[in-house]
Design brief:
By secondary structure, this protein is an all-alpha fold. It has 8 helices and no strands. One fe (ii) ion (FE2) binds next to helix 6 and helix 7.
């Protein structure tokens, strides 16, 4: 049954909202739906409770609530807790969401190649961001963070300086992404996939900026690295 439920009311349970509307308005929701094999595009005109019949609907709703609230836990104070927070909240999330964004961007670019506002080249830019973040985060996980947590006398000012330099490259790429995709404002005739792409893209860009801020301005200064704006 296709209930004509508006997605405007945040108090409407997700199970009673249309899958396509959830995908278009909750950044990151498409990754949740894909993981559960829920069709949010061509089959988006059914409510979640129906689309997810046979699945754990409560668990799906919990994931969507978490996305909507931005997992808004404050960054913890002690360094080991802060590093764990960065790994869980940003490294894991970037890896999961960027794969999904590249896939969505390729689809939108292919399906709407004749549209004057199509974000041509967006998938390649996101793939570039995904690859450079993958390498960057691996260095933090395997070299920098273990040294920070081990304490001792191994100097880490050089790796911190390299990470700051790589953050500047990420920042430049985020600006290119925003320019290419018109600040992620979808045209009036955009389909659900296009809206979902821009909602997810805006969320990832915000996340990467928060992530860099937390490292540059909170974590690194604990080890002698100066603050940066
Ligand atoms: Fe990081
Ligand atoms: Fe970093």
């Amino acid at each position: 049954m296709n209930s004509a439920v508006s997605n405007d009311d945040a108090h409407v349970p997700f199970r009673d909202q249309l899958v396509g509307n959830i995908a278009a308005t909750i950044p990151g929701a498409t990754a949740v739906f894909r993981a559960s094999r829920i069709d949010f595009c061509c089959g988006g005109d059914v409510v979640l409770g129906e689309a997810a019949r046979g699945l754990d609907v409560a668990a799906l709703e919990a994931s969507l609530h978490e996305l909507r609230s931005g997992v808004a836990a404050a960054a913890p104070g002690p360094t080991d807790a802060l590093v764990n927070y960065i790994l869980r909240r940003y490294h894991e999330t970037h890896r999961r969401e960027l794969v999904e964004l590249v896939r969505l961007a390729r689809k939108v670019e292919a399906v709407h190649r004749e549209h004057p506002d199509v974000p041509r080249g967006l998938a390649d830019e996101f793939e570039g961001l995904r690859l450079e973040l993958h390498e960057h985060m691996q260095k933090e996980e395997e070299i920098l963070f273990p040294r920070m947590l081990a304490g001792g006398d191994i100097p880490i000012s050089d790796p911190i300086a390299r990470m700051r330099e790589e953050h500047r490259h990420h920042g430049a790429r985020l600006l290119r992404l925003e320019e290419l995709a018109h600040d992620f404002e979808a045209p009036g005739d955009a389909c659900r996939s296009w809206c979902a792409l821009y909602a997810g893209a805006a969320k990832v860009v915000d996340d990467v900026r928060e992530h860099i801020h937390l490292e540059n301005n909170v974590l690194f200064p604990r080890f002698g690295g100066s603050c940066e704006v």
